[in-house]
Amino acid sequence: MKKIVFSIVLVMVAALGFGAAPVVSDVYAEPGAGKVTITYNLVADAVCDVCMMVSDDGGLSYNIYPTALVGDIGNNVSNNPPAKTIIWNPSGDGIAEGTQYKVKVIARDNPVDNATQVQSFIKVDGGTFNNGSSDVIVPSFFMDKYEVTQAEYHAVMGNNPSNFSSVTNGPVESVSWFDAIEYCNRRSMQEGFTACYSYNDGTEYGANPANWPEGWNTNATNHSNVDCDWEANGYRLPTEAEWEFAARGGISAPNPAHDPYYSGSNNISAVAWYNDNSDSTTHTVGTKAANELGLYDMSGNVWEWVWDIYEDSDRRVYRGGSWSNSHTYCTVLYQGGASVTNDTEYVGFRVCRIAP
């Protein structure tokens, strides 16, 4: 390997409420005979999930997800001692000699998995609820306790589109449905999971967004080209049924839910940031009360994109209301929708995963 540049370090909090964010520092890489030795320091208050991405365009994009790695990489990297080492075999990932590369190292909080929680994800046990017109059966799944934050989005996508970028641990907003789909796949690939979404417009482009055709996310009609593998273990948007079932509190919720009924309470001020209390801005995720499942901000703060099509072929559903809406829009029953290219400051998302 002739030239390799390793320079970018990124720190991210993936599990708010589990102490301070992990910090990666002093990243150094030493190319050798057929391998690269990467050292870094990790300061964290618990075990971490560490991953690495590679850029071959000077850091404009990180679309290479190396797998020929051993050492302090992957799930459950110890926080002690702080000095860490990764050994990378570039040829095992098809990396050619004579090209300049940059590497990004990411550490995320990673509490020990158990039956009810994976990182900041809550297990939603399956059940049945009535959506007002029919009974809906929802299998078990994992849903993130929090809306995707600006820091999480930046760690995966390399940018923060949010209008309210000064809000500490605020939800990412100003993201389109296409943006949310891309985030899910890129994060899945970063963490070694099977990406859920693929793109097929007559040509199968696979699951890596870097390989999707130019303009795929600019034409609203292209959303019909996005397919979901429901058995994949990566990140995805919840279906509308999953979202509503979880917002109601799952099998522990009042049945039927009251109208108006907000996620976790009949008192909207206890659980939601909306137009009467938001001061016209988003707020740090998780600062209002959680619902019966331990999920935050399912009412208010930002609307949340879900998978389902809304009424016609060029729009998708969002749920939950936002900081700018009245109480009417923040109930667990209200359904909204917009073009898949819509990226307003009112709309964000949260992610879920299949239950093992």
Considering the chains and any ligands shown, give keywords for the structure:
four-stranded mixed sheet; paralog of FGE (formylglycine-generating enzyme); 27% strand; disordered N terminus; 4 helices; 356 residues; single chain; Immunoglobulin-like; four-stranded antiparallel sheet
Structure explained in plain terms:
The structure is a single chain. This protein has helices at 150-157, 177-190, 240-247, 268-271, and strands spanning 8-11, 23-31, 36-43, 48-55, 69-71, 74-77, 83-88, 102-109, 117-118, 121-124, 127-130, 135-138, 141-144, 197-199, 226-228, 303-309, 315-319, 335-339, 347-348, 352-354. With 356 residues, it is mainly β. The strands form 6 sheets. The chain has a 4-stranded mixed sheet, with no helix packed on it. The longest helix is centred in the middle third of the chain and has 14 residues, at 177-190. The protein starts with 7 loop residues before the first strand and ends with a strand.
